[in-house]
Design goal:
By secondary structure, this protein is α+β, with helices and mostly antiparallel strands. It has a four-stranded antiparallel beta sheet. α2 packs antiparallel against α3. InterPro entries: Dihydroneopterin_aldolase, FolB_dom, GTP-CH-I_C/QueF. This is 7,8-dihydroneopterin aldolase. One of its GO terms (biological process) is tetrahydrofolate biosynthetic process.
Length: 120
């Protein structure tokens, strides 16, 4: 099993349940881990035999531009797009962190983590 990761991808976006969150926006961090069984082994040195993490970043960046109320919805859309692009993946894990959320006191971040495991 091979694992490919994209961690600490940073975005400014307008996700949030409250109208002021959608108006002002804030900073987010996206972490993505995918696992799959390489068909031709890992020594082919060909991008077509692995997962292109530039495509993972492009999917995350595009979805971060689509304002949503819930982080769960954003993470779910990222997973759906990754699954559509790489149907052979065994598992996809997306963690979405909202930095400095608007709460009554200082909080570093809130986060949602979704994991999708392929059903055989």
């Amino acid at each position: 099993m091979m694992k490919i990761s994209l961690h600490e991808a940073k975005f400014f976006a307008n996700h949030g349940f409250y109208p002021e969150e959608q108006l002002l926006g804030t900073h987010f961090v996206v972490n993505i881990d995918v696992e799959f069984e390489p068909e031709r082994g890992v020594l082919t040195d060909e991008l077509t035999d692995t997962v292109n993490y530039m495509q993972l970043y492009a999917i995350a960046a595009d979805e971060m531009k689509q304002t949503k109320k819930l982080l769960e919805a954003v993470a779910g859309e990222i997973i759906d797009r990754i699954r559509a692009s790489f149907p052979y993946l065994h598992s996809i894990r997306v963690e979405l962190k909202k930095l400095n959320p608007p709460l009554a006191g200082p909080v570093g971040y809130t986060a949602v983590t979704l994991t999708d495991i392929k059903k055989d």
